[in-house]
Amino acid sequence: MDQIRRNRLEELLREEISALILSGEIKDPRVASLVSVSRVEVNRDGSHAKVWVSCLEDEQASLDSAVQGLESAAGFIQSRIGRKLRLRLTPILHFFPDLGIKEGFEMVGKIKDLLGR
């Protein structure tokens, strides 16, 4: 799969998974609407996709439980994406917690403390 097609697929997957979360179609109570998809990476042949999710809540436990809920609903999400996007091969989804946003806010706080603001 060439890079342009892979980038387009990654963006489509990110949008569709986000839409499923926001619409409440994923019935798992661990997956709240405060969960957002921050990044998707599809491997070269398009058979697997890594999906990084972040949570706007401060607790690490809520992010971990949201990732577990998404992992358990991965088959449902894949089937919905496959029907909507009409892909020949729907990637197998693997979900991971994205701590970048939280770590970014912590770093900004540390910098402000150093500068005395």
TrEMBL record:
Family, similarity comment: Belongs to the RbfA family.
GO BP term, pick one: maturation of SSU-rRNA
GO CC terms in record: cytosol
Function text: One of several proteins that assist in the late maturation steps of the functional core of the 30S ribosomal subunit. Associates with free 30S ribosomal subunits (but not with 30S subunits that are part of 70S ribosomes or polysomes). Required for efficient processing of 16S rRNA. May interact with the 5'-terminal helix region of 16S rRNA.
Name this protein carries in UniProt: Ribosome-binding factor A
Keyword Cytoplasm in record: yes
Localization per Swiss-Prot or TrEMBL: Cytoplasm
Molecular function per GO: ribosomal small subunit binding
Record keyword Cytoplasm present: yes
Residue stretches in coiled coil: none
Gene3D superfamilies: 3.30.300.20
UniProt keyword terms in alphabetical order: Cytoplasm, Ribosome biogenesis
Bilayer-crossing regions: none
Any Pfam family matching the protein: RBFA
Gene: rbfA
Superkingdom of origin: Bacteria
InterPro entries according to UniProt: KH_dom-like_a/b, RbfA, RbfA_dom_sf, Ribosome-bd_factorA_CS
Subunit record text: Monomer. Binds 30S ribosomal subunits, but not 50S ribosomal subunits or 70S ribosomes.
Main location: cytoplasm
